Each structure stands twice: as C-alpha cells, then as structure tokens.
User: What shape does this take?
Amino acid sequence: MKNLTLKQLRYFEALSRHGHFGRAAEVCSISQPALSVQIKELEQGLGTPLFERGPRHVRLTAFGEDWALRVREILRAVDDLGDMARAAQDGLSGRLRLGVIPTIAPYLLPGLIAHLDRTHAELDLHVRETMTPRLIEELARGQIDAAIVALPLNEPGFEEVPLFDEPLMLVRPETEKDRPVPTPEGLRDLRLLLLEEGHCFRDQALSFCQFGAGATRDGLDGTSLSTLVQMVGSGIGVTLIPQMAVPVETRSAPVCVGQFAEPQPRRTVGMIWRKTNPLRGQLRQVADIVLEVGRSLPR
Amino acid sequence: MKNLTLKQLRYFEALSRHGHFGRAAEVCSISQPALSVQIKELEQGLGTPLFERGPRHVRLTAFGEDWALRVREILRAVDDLGDMARAAQDGLSGRLRLGVIPTIAPYLLPGLIAHLDRTHAELDLHVRETMTPRLIEELARGQIDAAIVALPLNEPGFEEVPLFDEPLMLVRPETEKDRPVPTPEGLRDLRLLLLEEGHCFRDQALSFCQFGAGATRDGLDGTSLSTLVQMVGSGIGVTLIPQMAVPVETRSAPVCVGQFAEPQPRRTVGMIWRKTNPLRGQLRQVADIVLEVGRSLPR
DNA sequence: GTTTTTCATAACTTCAAATTATGACAATGA
DNA sequence: TCATTGTCATAATTTGAAGTTATGAAAAAC
Assistant: This one.
C-alpha cells in the first residue's frame, strides 16, 4: 500500500456516501470508468474488497465501513492543512462557510452580511441555512466552517461559544391585546402553533410549556416563524417566537406581542466549530462580530 | 489547495527532517530537482513559504513548523490505513517491525525468532535494536510497529503491556564467590561497572544503589552487558545484569553470580505500541508469544 | 579567484490517470 | 419472452503531472 493517493481516498469517500459509481464519479468530476479503475486499484492494493457490488446497489463491506471512518478523518485533516495558511495570515479573508439555523438566519444575517461587507470586504462568506443536526454533520465533515445555533449542544469535538441570549415572546391575535399574558400552564389550554419537527426552537418552546413526551398537543405545525405569525394573525391560535424575530415578523399581521413573567423562556444564541479547525482564530473574530450585530438588533 | 498530493506531503516531511534538498530527495528515491519542484508547488498552493532557504541550511518557517505537526499525523494515519487490511484478516502475517532494547535483544530474540519461525512462518519480522527513547520516537513516527522495553514508561498515546519481571543479579569476579552478597549501600563502596548513558538499564541499576543525582560514582561505563561481564571477569569491578542475561554472559568469563536479598532489584519487561495502531490485535498475539518465550528462558 | 556546495530552472521523457467507446449482466417492463 | 434500461467493468487511446538529466546561479570555503 505504498502508492496510495489522496485522490483515491476522495473517490472512495464519495463512493461510500453515494453507493453509486456514476453519481460518485460525477461528484468527483471524473468519468465513471476512471472511478471504477481507481477503486479497483485501491482494493487490489489492500488485498481486500471495500465494496460489495450488488446488482442494484454498491455497499461498503464491513471492513470498508471501518476504513471509511479513518479515511474521513484523514480527508478532514488534509482539508484543514489548506486552511492553516489562511489562518496564519490572520485577519478575515478568504472563503468562510457559515451555517445558520432557520430561526436565526432571517433576522441576524442581513445585519451580519452588511457589517462584514463594510468591515471585511475580503471575506467571501457562504451561508447555509438548515437545522441543527444537519449543521453538526456538515461541520464534522468539513463542509462548513462554523455554525450559528442555539446552545448548549454538548457535541464532543466541538467548541461552543455562547454569544447572547434573548427571551421568547408570545404572539397572539391583536384582539387579545388587553388580556393578561398566560402562564406556561395556561398556554397548554390555548391552541399553540409550532414549527414542524426537527427545529430546535420547537423543542425549546415545548419545554417551556412543559409538554411531556406523551402529552398530546392540540396544535398545528408551520414551516417557518413567518408562517406561524400569519396563522396567528388569522386567529387560529398563538405562538412563541424569539425576540429577534419580533420586528420582522409582526409587522405584516394583526397580532400583538406579549412578554412572559419571570422566569421568562429564553434561548442562547452562539457559534460552534470543530475544536481542531485551523480557522478558529478567525472564527473567534467572526463570533465577536456576530455578537455585536446581535446586540444591535432592534428590539 | 485542491490538488495537494500525499507524495508532496511525504516529500515535505522528509525535507523538514533532513533540512537538505539533496538528502531528502535521496530518502524519497527521487532526484533533487523533482523534490524542489514539488516543494515549490506546495508553497505556491498555500501562498506561504514553508521553508526558509539559507545559504547553508534549509529550515522550516514558523508556519512550516505548525504545518509539519499536522502533516506527520496525517502521514501516520495514512500508513495505518494500509495496516488495517492486514489487521482485518487476523492471524499473524505480513511485515512486523519490532524494536527491542539492547539489554533484552540478545537474550530474548533467538528464542522469539525460532518460535515465530516455527509457528508463524508467514510473519516477516524486522528487528531494530536501539535504546528506549529512540524506539519511542520511531513508534510515534510509524517506523516500527511495536517495541519490547522495560516498563513502565507512561508515554501518552501508547499502550503498555507488562509481560514478566525478573531480578537483577550481581556479577562479581569468581574469586569473591564465597563472600556474602552486599546490600545496596555496600554496593556503593565497590567499583560498579555500568552501561553508558542512555540505557534504561543503567538507570534501573543506579536507582537500586540509590545514587543521588549529585553523587559521584567511581565506575567505568561499558557499551554492552557482555563487555561489562568481561571487565568483571578481569577483576576490574562488579556489575548488575538482568537474570535473562546470566546464562549467555557468564559462561565465558571467570565470574560468579549472586542474588540480592529481598527486596531484590527487578525490572519489568513488556511491549508497547501506539494505541491507534490498527495492528494492535496482532500485537497482542505477539505479546503472548513473547511472554511464553520469556518464561521459558533458561535460569 | 577558483572550487565546492546547494538549490533552482529548463528541456525532455515517462507513466499514471484521465477520456471515450464498448461489453457484460441482471433487473424491469411490455 | 425479449427488448430495454441501468449499472459497473474492460479496452484502447490521450493527456498531463511528475520524474529525469543537464545546466545555471549564488553563496561559502579554500
């Protein structure tokens, strides 16, 4: 196994994830035969098959699975090597791939992008908006450099930097403006509209209302905070949104916003990245900027 | 930094260690210009110099130093990939590079090699004999797979397996056969012959005699246990040798062997390897065999 | 000032790794 | 059942990266 190449490892990794020679080859920007040959040479060099070619699927062998784990680590480390050069010439520049969860992105990003444009024009910011578990996965894989999420997560291997926290606000139809803000228990008797499964914000809201695992909830699920607020506006129920969403979301619907009594529900917004990411110096700078932007959001 | 290759990393590593293009190229089995070009491309790809070319030396830049640390880790991990295939088809086979310290090698190896030849002819055993610190270094670098040394070492990242322990014996001129074996304190008044600096066995012997750091010792240093025993035989002084060395070393010199009173000085012989070495399954098997061979040594 | 050491550059060569074209084989569907 | 489709392997050819030898340039050593 003297003439192993990084290309082969990259091809292997692609094939292991796609389970299909054609598609993996496309991802690698090479032809399918080229991939076939390289995989074959890899297997010959090792003396063991890595894939099990079925008529309708290509799957990793048991050994291949073990191998893939190490290969992914290596590829990540190699990609980090490239980033180190940028990290060395510190100052924010180059490509930076940032993931943001959907309940933060629309409110924080406009300010963040404007700020970065003004102060760090050299920075080539790529933003990816998706939910927390996906972001964690992409961070681990090195597909993004950092993510802005709700903390804490306690993922091993990741550095978490809490930035600021903010209360969750109650959104009711405007007609209920003068009625008192209910307690968490009182909330349970209202029709509570929440984001669909998978959003961490949904879980934060649920935990405030202390819905147990088994408790049924008479509510509807929306795909975005914006949708939820519109639904509230049409009198279907009530919902919770984070404070940063208030100015944007409550402008265009007949709703009113209420603050809960202490202890208020809150969420902590922060950044995470892989502990070993060589860009961590840069990322700390970005975190400072995110904090600044977060603090200056309209209340 | 998309077209980084493993070859480049290997060349980089070689150059970083030799500090000389010509010699590094030779180690890599390529011509000097080939190495020059690859290093240049590496530096161009990164946009940062990795080496500082002085008129009489090639040294890593500060950034290069950081880089080298990661590169070495990567290369080690890559080399491990190859070993995994062998590890998978368990059973002892293929190349196994074993380091042994000089105060164990001559006594244990004949039996070990004979045993392995008999029971595992498939195994291609390479033995390297040198002192502990060097072995540790080579283990870390992946140049050897395991080492037989005196424990404990407590090196982070290494797995230590104690195998057996044995007493250290006193070797005196034959003429002193009937005199009582001295105590550790009594030893200090004799001319004690020891191995030269660097041998861990020297330190074990010294610690038994409780020579402090500052204490001067009226002794001579030898380069091997064999030399020491010959010197004892010619009446120059006394020495300590491990029990396993007794049959071999005391045969050809007019010396006598004495056992100390309890608490006897002892040393523990064991094996170590990198915790992440994929061959650890195989190495455990080898350890069992070493134990067996060790136990069956003539007393 | 000549020689030596050492790295860089240039011109040419070689071989690994692409490409395109095609084959084999099983599953799918009329 | 037999053509059709999807999918991976093989073959022939081309391309280009990485190697070689030859040589240059610059500083150090004698």
Summary: Residues 20-22, 32-33, 36-37, 40, 53, 55-56, 58 of chain A lie near DNA strand D (CB under 10 Å from a C1'). Chain A has three domains: 6-85, 93-164+267-295, 166-266. Chain A has a mean pLDDT of 86. The first helix of chain A runs from residue 6 to 18.
